[in-house]
Amino acid sequence: MVRDDGVVTTHDALVVHANRRLRTAHALARFGVHLPMPLLWLTHHVVCKWLAPPLHARQRFTTIFGFDLVVRPTTGPHYYRNGFYEQGTMHVIGACLRPGDTFVDAGAAVGQMSFHAARLVGPRGRVLAFEPAPERFEDLVDGIAVNALTNITPIAAGLAAEPGELGLYLRGSPSMADQTRHEDTLRVPVHRLDDVLDSHGLSRVRFLKIDVEGLEPEVLLGASRLLRSPEPPIVCYEHGIYRHSTPIAEILPAGYRTFQLAGTAHRASRLVPTTKRLRADNVFAVHDAVLRSLPRGLFA
Q1: Which of 3, 28, 101, 267 would disulfide-bridge 206, Cβ 3.0–4.6 Å?
Q2: Quick check: 60 and 17 in contact, CB under 8 A?
Q3: 184 and 206 share a domain?
Q4: Which residue from 233, 230, 181 is spatially nearest to 210, judged by alpha carbons?
């Protein structure tokens, strides 16, 4: 496979891990999304972790969505033991994307949402998957290969308000939000999304998913032209985990309305309009210009 930077890569000979204990853990995790939050957390983080075989090295396994992921202990233990992550967000993506659409994944990690989107948009669609963390990017690239997904372009870089380089803090969930850290950091390239879209000849994006551990405002500032296009993208971003440098409500152009899942990102449910006090969870910003194109059943 050829990466966006022109480097040819090959994936390791990874065998699908599908023993009975792992399948049981995945089935229990699916049942757990219907439980109240304390029991859901206990099921996913304790019981499924106990059931699943230990994850000691890179491993390929099949998710509940039917495609495979390649993970390692530092990039995807939650995907491995549960068989999925953020089922509610996956549900919204599935309701919004159509064949031929373009999906942008800012913070693609090992690729779960990119792979889901790639199957939805089909061969005429495009997926741009940005992931600056080296281990996650390697697993993303190998996941694309083992699933034979030809409509995904993996990009080993982050997105920001201006092109250049930023320090990526590698402990825990990799983040570029705090540039005062110097230990356990790696300098990585960052691009403006508007510039990347121009270079790929793309003028429309149906869905922009942002999970960049606090750098969400900068990603949107680098996509100002896209956000003001005739068909602005649906934007999914994380709220409440990090204090943003600029409130996202001040960056989104007029015409955008915000919604959150009636449940949480962990379970499929309908979208409800947000109040002034947003819940610490994913937010879905939808512009009036595209609201009518979405299925009515997606909203409460």
Answers
A1: 101
A2: yes
A3: yes
A4: 233
pLDDT at residue number 239: 83
Which of the residues in the chain have pLDDT under 70? 1-18, 241-245
Residue 66 is which amino acid?
G
Structural domains counted in the chain: 2
Task: Write down the pLDDT at residue 201.
Answer: 97
Q: How far apart are CA 215 and CA 283, in angstroms?
A: 15
Interstrand relation of 102-106 and 126-130 (parallel, antiparallel or unpaired):
parallel
Nearest-angstrom CA–CA distance, 17 and 22? 8
Average pLDDT, the chain: 90
User: Does a structural domain hold residue 3?
Assistant: no
Are 247 and 288 members of one domain?
A: yes
pLDDT (0 to 100) of residue 15: 56
Q: Which of 45, 71, 67, 55 is nearest to 22 (CA)?
A: 55
Same domain for 165 and 232: yes
291 and 207 in one domain?
yes
Domain boundary among 32, 65, 82: 82
Please give the residue range of the domain that contains residue 113.
Answer: 87-298
Give the model's pLDDT for residue 154: 98
